[in-house]
Amino acid sequence: MTRAAFIYESALSQHVLRQDHPMRPARLRHTYQLLQAYGAFDDGKSQLLAPRPATLEELGLLHTSEYIAAVRGLSSGLSVRHAERFGFSSMGDNPIYDGMYEAALLSTGATIMAAELVASHQLDVAFNISGGLHHAAPGHASGFCIFNDPAVAIKYLLSLGLRVAYVDIDAHHGDGVQNAFIDDNQVLTISIHESGRYLFPGTGFVEETGTAPAIGYSVNLPLYPYTEDEVYLQAFQEVVPPLLAAFAPDILVTQLGIDSYHTDPLTHLQVTSRGFVGAVRFFSGLGLPWLALGGGGYDLGAVARCWSLAYGVMVDAEWPNTIPVELSQVLGATQLRDTLKLEIPEDVRLETRRLAEEGVAAIKKGVFPLFGIKG
Prior knowledge:
single chain; 11% strand
């Protein structure tokens, strides 16, 4: 029987970055409410756990003491000289807001707690939807991310002597995690994302494969805007399964951003719940200890629906397709699963397939041989 936990409490979803900011923590609350309505936590094999804040020592596994102090000071209203040097500005991606230090501590602590539970085999899978903040660097915020909880958790897992596979399916390249382990052959990072030619952070090209002694341990599959489920899943299946099999990790960490969704206001991929769940089902089928994290996603209804479906896969449950009436208006949908067929112009569809095939071929040529995989 799968032993699973969902990490959440209301404190994770109460802060406001800025009134017009696309990152809205209310999406976390909506996901929890939808799962609760489906009775997700009434079954003995699924636990609802409250997070704990990260400690300074844990943050220090990745982040500099100067940066941690700057975040704490800015959060409490102190004037920190050259705030922009740490990635903060009033109208940029990373605004300064009251309580941001405490909020970031809690979401990071939730990921570390989940990692502890999975690494100790108390759980098979733990899902922290407030985590997956994969852009933050050791000394500055980036892309809505203050502390890089996936990288901090992976540092912790490495301290236990574990080999870690990190797979990132957010629409944006997982640059912060890749950079943190660019020269570490105990960590395999795979990122499947919209090409940096069209989307922040402008990185994540196939040629980025890591540095010695970890050449080949950073894997990137950039996709063309408007890539839909069929092309997405085919490319995923050609790259991810053989690499994970060859690397043979002790533990799996996934970033399950759903800003790849076709109605997301910030991105251009055309993934539906079908494509997203297809990737999640693969992760579930690996049978590895699994730390699952949230990430991007700015269509709030799509986020709640897709992350609820993801947790259903984790606990081997099929939620009803009808969204409870009290939530359907909030989420802007009456059905949990997508059934629509997206209309993609044929020339665009061909271009998405071409770029995906080129990326897959480049990975098979440049990375697969390093792992003894025949392309």
